[in-house]
Design brief:
The chain is an alpha+beta fold and about 625 residues long. The protein contains 18 helices and eleven strands. The two termini are about 30 Å apart. Keywords: Heme, Iron, Membrane, Metal-binding, Transmembrane, Transmembrane helix. Belongs to the cytochrome b5 family.
């Protein structure tokens, strides 16, 4: 079979893609979960027309009826396209890479864009406010004009919402444009406001905006449990910073809260109007420059103090012009991020992302002092409660058989959250506990050690015993002429957990046997695996020893000559071990063992004749295999 150095790597194929290939004349079909492109394969005994009946379909049942030998698939391995991706029926961690990747790309753009947009707006309007406090919403309206202009000139607006189109109702676009204009005008005022009557511990505008968005989404999502504990932590934080119920009627408290709640209402309105209306959102970004320009003209006509802005720009044209351009472009990115999340995911998802982003930005700017850490704890608890509720909805949908109806962002958000916390907490685990094991091991006797698993393991349930396994493969079983396993010896010992001397004797004997297996002149040993379960939940510990040999004679010769095995027999029969029970099983394959390897480049399975090791090179692309140990 000729090699194809440029053979395409394997990838996942959706059912829709598989079915579409039949319409284009290609002969793609699936067998046992693997998709093959047999358009150029003409060696079928029944002819190509027999295969054409299954083009774009799953031909597993017909293949199993016609051919009982799976080795026949090896002859068409070069035509593999990849695995058939079936619609998931339940959520499984690490098994939704497409949705996770899409969510990662979305948030990688959206969250930094929101932060840059808010920072850019605050920097420009803050610079203007230092020169004049009487310009009100005018600086924000100027930023809206620039953001709308950038939205028209740059191609980013056309990719808003991906390939979705949605409704193009005109009035929705105008309302969204008006909402964006109003939000740009009042957001700088709200974000820079604070409860000044509380002094240095005052709640800032970013804090009030994030809490307002959380409260709004809680009221608009009745299925969500009330965040009682986070709300209490927020109130305690405000109380400890000096806020009292009567203070809400104070102008220094009421006015900032009013501006922030107006922004909250606009953000919620924008996400609700944009949800499912991609065409409207794209059009609205272009209309923003028109409405914002009209707002600037109206403000200048009604407010005589507007001339102060001209003086500010005249005094420092390059600096102020640069800040305006930066704030406008950053604001456009933030608008795109907000609307894109509402279109690709949902309005609730977009609003909550904005809320968490504002909260993180607030803590980054103002720290956790003055009882703000209570508020931070409340935000974290609210996030964890949302994640638990989200996972519960996934499980409920799977139980009800409606998992396929869930939108993609449900899976993507959960998958990204799971992989993220596994990575972060796994790093913390390795940096702390895994390093601590070296300290403890250096203190306890030299014959013993403690071990902390470096990677998380699956959760198998409550009544499952966890233990430790160790493997040894002799150098001669790993070399070019690898030993082939043909005989297996399994030894299972059980000890009452309370009989600590029996467990210690057994472990000492196990160390002796393990040392004998490391003898480089030992003939026939392919591998040895030892597993120890200190507790099983049933009242006894277990020790399992699995040794793999080239032949039964090699195993027999070792057991006859082994000092460690003789010591173990003596302890069993002499009464030294008071509670030890043993099972010894010798296993020999009834048929030749089938070995497989995998190509390093294209990922295809490399098979061999029964009883023979797999080839060192891929028969499709010619690249080397991983050269796995045979056991």
């Amino acid at each position: 079979m000729p090699e194809e150095p440029e053979a395409a790597p394997l990838y996942e194929v959706d059912e829709e893609v598989l079915a579409s290939k039949a319409d284009s004349g290609l002969l793609w079909l699936a067998i046992e979960g693997v998709v093959y492109d047999l358009s150029q394969w003409h060696e079928h005994p029944g002819g190509t027309e027999v295969l054409r009946r299954f083009a774009g379909k799953d031909a597993t049942a017909e293949f199993q009826k016609a051919c009982q030998c799976k080795t026949s698939l090896a002859s068409v391995s070069r035509y593999q396209v990849g695995v058939l991706r079936l619609p998931p029926h339940e959520y499984r961690i690490f098994e939704h890479p497409v949705e996770e990747g899409e969510m990662r790309r979305l948030l990688t753009f959206a969250l930094p864009s929101l932060i840059i947009g808010i920072v850019g707006l605050k920097v420009f309007t803050g610079e203007v406010a230092e020169a004049s406090q009487s310009l009100g919403v005018l600086p924000g309206l100027l930023v809206a004009v620039g953001a709308g202009t950038f939205g028209i000139l740059t191609p980013m607006r056309r990719r808003l919402g991906g390939s979705s189109v949605g409704s193009s109702s005109g009035w929705h676009a105008h309302i969204i444009a008006l909402g964006i204009t109003a939000l740009c005008g009042i957001l700088p005022i709200a974000a820079s406001s604070s409860w000044t009557s509380l002094g240095g511990a005052a709640s800032q505008g970013l804090e009030l905006l994030s809490l307002g968005l959380f409260a709004a989404e809680t009221m608009l999502a009745p299925a969500m449990p009330l965040p009682t504990v986070p709300a209490l932590l927020c109130l305690f934080s405000w109380y400890d910073r000096g806020l009292r119920p009567a203070d809400f009627f104070h102008e220094g408290i009421y006015n900032p809260w009013r501006w922030c709640m107006a922004c909250v209402a606009l953000i919620v309105l924008l996400t609700r109007l944009a949800d499912g209306r991609a065409a409207c959102a794209r059009r609205a970004l272009a209309l923003t420059s028109l409405y914002a320009s009209a707002g600037v003209c109206l403000y200048v006509a009604l407010q005589p103090d507007a001339s102060e802005l001209r003086q500010i720009f005249t005094a420092s044209p390059l600096r102020m012009g640069g800040l305006l351009v930066f704030a406008s472009f950053a604001s456009m990115l933030a608008q795109l991020a907000l609307l894109d999340m509402a279109l690709r995911c949902s309005s609730s998802f977009a609003t909550r992302c904005v809320a968490f982003t504002l909260a993180l930005l607030n803590f980054a700017l103002y720290g956790l002092s003055s009882w703000r850490w209570l508020l931070a704890a409340g935000v974290v608890l609210h996030f964890l409660e949302l994640s638990r509720h989200h996972r519960g909805r996934l499980d409920q949908a799977a139980t009800a058989g409606r998992f396929a109806e869930l939108p993609w962002h449900f899976l993507g958000a959960q998958a990204l959250w799971d992989s993220g916390r596994v990575s972060v907490l796994g790093y913390l685990w390795r940096a702390t506990v895994c390093n601590l094991q070296n300290v403890v091991t250096s203190i306890i006797p030299d014959e013993l050690r403690v071990y902390a698993c470096e990677a998380p393991v699956p959760y198998y349930g409550e009544n499952v015993a966890m233990g430790l396994a160790a493997q040894y493969v002799p150098p001669k079983a790993r070399g070019k002429d690898r030993r082939r396993p043909n005989f297996f010896v399994c030894n299972v010992g059980q000890i009452v957990e309370s009989a600590l001397p029996d467990l210690q004797h057994t472990m000492n004997t196990l160390v002796d046997v393990w040392g004998e297996f490391h003898d480089p002149t030992l003939p026939g040993l392919c591998a040895n695996v030892v597993m120890v379960f200190p507790t099983s939940g049933q009242g006894w510990a277990k020790e399992i020893n699995l040794s793999v040999w080239e032949s039964g004679k090699d195993a027999f010769d070792w057991y006859v000559k082994s000092k460690g095995h003789k010591k173990a027999l003596m302890e069993h029969t002499s009464g030294i071990l008071r509670t030890f029970g043993n099972l010894l099983a010798s296993l020999e394959p009834a048929e030749p063992i089938k070995y497989q390897d995998r190509c390093r480049r294209c990922g295809r399975t490399v098979e061999a004749a029964p009883g023979q090791p797999a080839q060192p090179a891929c028969p499709v692309c010619g690249a080397g295999t991983f050269r796995y140990n045979l056991f």
